[in-house]
Specification:
This protein has 556 residues and is an alpha/beta fold. The chain is built from 20 helices and 19 strands. Strands 7-8-13-15-16-17-18-19 form an 8-stranded parallel β-barrel, surrounded by 6 helices. α2 packs parallel to α3, α4 runs parallel beside α6 and α9 packs across α12. The longest helix is centred in the first third of the chain and has 18 residues. 47% of the residues are buried. Bound molecules: acetamide (ACM) and zinc ion (ZN).
């Protein structure tokens, strides 16, 4: 046979294999930067061992995680570094063309090899493997398709923000969210711990922050933002909860073992109603007695004539905040501390003699500059403690130090301005990255925020690097973030519904090279593994793109 003939035969065999379905579809999300699938499988069974340098504790920890996963789905306990018929090797070596979080994964019928420059890379390789395996306890053969992956993320900041102030979520629920983030190679959980409607973190020096600030008088049937609806009747009940420092540390450790940094957000100077209900002396017009929180949007604050922002003219406010931040920094090892900074109602500062005196004494021109003074003063404290300040894009308005990082939520405007000033930027435009907003026609959806319809496709197609920036300025966009505010979300099931499948969409946007993204392919991969994996694990999700669901409902 001629060489061309051989080549034709070869092609024929390949297309035969493909048409017989022997070359498996690999459904990894985020889509790897480079993926080549070939025929055949590696079977994980009780004759398979993990092999790595046992003196490396990082690798040992990742191995333990993977052993736990395989045990959970199969009952098999993979031996570590023992004699075995075949091996899954992993090791740390810099691989050319693979960034600090990247990895190379090679699966052949006889072995799986993972190499990465860091423990993060090994962990991500294992997440890719997981998505080729069953998602629940099964008697199925654990067959990993033969393939070669060389993969690295596009952005270093791949974040998700969860608001636990409007509704409290248990530690278990937070850990479930962390597991989902880890599955999709996200690496930041931004934990919105304080707001007007509840303070959620134990602070030992100020026990009223949680004794008073973590609970509110909830009216049966209350719905946020519906101040003007029919007055609620019934007996209010105490509603809320908080995390002890010990629990918060457990969350931090659980996340760290899954390559996720927890960034705490302690809101200031606005959105601080729960703290000021507990310690009104730090607001502009403090009351002698703490006021109970109530369930309406800022309601108790307005009716008590109590500002929901700290008094910027009172030095004691800053000492109070510094004491809180000192305890926060002892719990959260993250480089960044998020101080909020959004939506400050400056009318209180306009009326407050102490705030006005501060403006005069510091030679400031207006309340915007007073906000700048406030943020700068807090930033100095954070920098002195080797922490970096992170805030919503309003922090740009009063002038900020160059070390501050800006999270752009009011569209991309703030992020673009900040990148032009060479601040690091995280893009989190509410449209389309707020997942508390509708994902489909509001007519058929549970109540959600109305401002835009953030469909799966719009989330998927979002690009965090706007064309308004030069190539050099684009480098200041360190990543992006989705967010869930929980005014309308009071259960874990509802949280899951708003999160999925939009979480994998943002994850792919933040990880996969632009030229490898493809919405149709993404939806096929969701259907190839992810919807089933969630369904089998009892995790709720929006079904619009679930083929089976769509087919079933069209038959009805
Ligand atoms: C925000 O949505 N107020 C940051
Ligand atoms: Zn004041």
């Amino acid at each position: 046979m001629t060489v061309t003939g051989l080549f034709r035969m070869h092609l024929l065999c390949w297309s035969l294999l493909a048409s017989l379905g022997l070359r498996a579809q690999v459904n990894i999300i985020p889509q790897p930067a480079n993926l080549q699938v070939s025929p055949g499988h590696f079977i994980i069974d009780k004759n398979t061992a993990l092999q790595f340098r046992p003196d490396n504790s990082d690798l040992a920890a990742v191995a333990k995680y993977f052993v736990g996963y395989i045990n959970r789905i199969s009952g098999i306990r993979l031996p570590l570094n023992g004699k075995a018929g075949k091996y899954i090797h992993f090791g740390l070596t810099k691989t050319k063309g693979v960034g600090p979080e990247g990895y190379q994964l090679t699966v052949s019928p006889t072995a799986i090899h993972i190499t990465a420059g860091s423990k993060e890379g090994v962990f991500y390789a294992l997440q890719s493997l997981r998505q080729t395996l069953p998602a629940i306890r099964t008697n199925e053969t654990l067959a990993v398709p033969c393939m070669k992956i060389i993969d690295s993320p596009r952005f270093t900041w791949r974040g998700f923000m969860l608001d636990v102030s409007r509704h409290y979520y248990s530690v278990d629920a937070i850990m479930e969210v962390i597991d989902l983030l880890a599955l999709y190679k996200m690496n930041v959980l931004h934990w919105h711990l304080t707001d007007n409607e509840g303070w959620r973190l134990e602070i030992k020096k100020y026990p009223k922050l949680t004794n008073v600030g973590a609970f509110r008088n909830e009216m049966p049937g209350s719905i946020f933002y519906k101040k003007d609806s029919v007055p609620l009747t019934g007996t209010p009940y105490r509603y809320g909860g908080y995390y002890t420092q010990q629990q918060a540390k457990e969350v931090v450790a659980y996340a760290a073992s899954r390559n996720i940094t927890v960034i705490p957000e302690i809101e200031m100077p606005g959105h601080s109603g729960a703290a000021l209900a507990a310690y009104p002396q730090f607001s502009c017009f403090g009351l002698a007695q703490p006021v109970p929180n109530s369930s309406t949007w800022n309601g108790h604050m307005d009716s008590a004539q109590l500002a929901v922002n700290y008094c910027a003219g009172n030095d004691s406010s800053f000492l109070f905040i510094q004491d809180i931040l000192a305890e926060v920094m002892a719990i959260f090892p993250s480089t960044y501390i998020h101080i909020g900074g959004d939506e400050v109602d400056k009318s209180y500062w306009k009326k407050c003699p102490r705030c006005q005196k501060r403006i005069r004494d510091e030679g400031l021109h207006n309340e915007n500059e007073l906000q700048g003074y406030f943020i700068n003063r807090v930033e100095k404290f954070l920098l002195a403690n080797n922490k970096k300040l992170l805030g919503w894009d309003e922090i740009l308005e009063g002038g900020i130090a160059s070390s501050a990082t800006v999270m752009s939520w009011r569209g991309e405007k703030g992020g673009i301005a900040a990148a032009k000033q060479h601040h690091d930027v995280i893009m989190s435009p509410s449209d389309p990255l707020y997942f508390n907003r509708y994902q489909a026609d509001p007519l058929h959806e549970p109540l959600a925020a109305r401002f835009s319809i953030n469909t799966l496709e719009r989330v998927y197609k979002y690009d965090p690097q706007p064309n308004a920036l030069s190539t050099q300025e684009k480098q200041f966009i360190i990543g992006g973030q989705a967010a869930i505010w929980t005014e309308f979300i009071s259960s874990v099931q509802q949280l899951e519904y708003m999160l999925l499948p939009r979480l994998p969409a943002i994850a792919e946007t933040l990880w996969t090279p632009l030229d490898k993204k493809n919405f149709t392919g993404f939806v096929d991969r969701l259907n190839g593994w992810h919807f089933n994996a969630w369904q089998q694990n009892g995790i709720n999700f929006h079904p619009a793109y679930f083929y089976r669901q769509a087919n079933e409902s069209s038959r009805k």
